[in-house]
Amino acid sequence: MAKGNGHSRPICGKVSSIAVIAGLHMLLPAALFALGVALAVFYLPRTGGRVCWARSIRKTLPVALFALAAYFQDAPVLLVAGLAFSALGDLALSRPGEKAFLAGMVAFASAHIAYIVLMATLGSGPQLAQWPLVLLMVALGLSTEFWLRPHTDALKWPVRGYVVIILGMGLMALGLPDARNVALWGAMLFVLSDLVLSVETFVLDQDDPRRKWASKIVWITYIAAQIGLFWGLGTV
User: Fold this and answer.
1) What's the structural domain count of the chain?
2) pLDDT higher than threshold 60 for residue 2
């Protein structure tokens, strides 16, 4: 009996180690996600701050942590890619200059394409009963030719392309099953966030006091959108 008990100790030790590792594997994504949310809240009062690398890092970290949380949660690779591209977009848009702005547009367009492909595998596309929402999205896209395009100058074609891609993401989200409604709301909030961002970037004057509030609305809706997509698309 004593000999048998001697062999059981290493086995129990191995079982305990496996349990600890499994527990950490479950807790790590939650910890990363919670930290990302906390940093997003911390950044909110600083959305209109001066351009510097410290601000860029603070802006980039929240969604970068969401991407890491999705990765360690074994979420679909397209969700991880969408979040990672979004974090790169946050970094680029936090830097000055037209090249940085274009890089941010490309990064976010890539994120939306990743989300579109993932939604296509999880849903069935917009349904006939949703035609009012489809028409509303199409009308919103067409309306940008009147209130947005005249302000975009040399960026009119990149902006047009981006409008098509993000509205495509919104339309694809309409076809998600009811169990993933949180992702649908996330997609709609993303459209709203980019709508306000386009007004802030291209329409409002630099000294317009509404820019301060616009930047906060953009950040709140954007983070809420990424959270919705994280939870709604995080499991297959």
Assistant:
1) 1
2) no
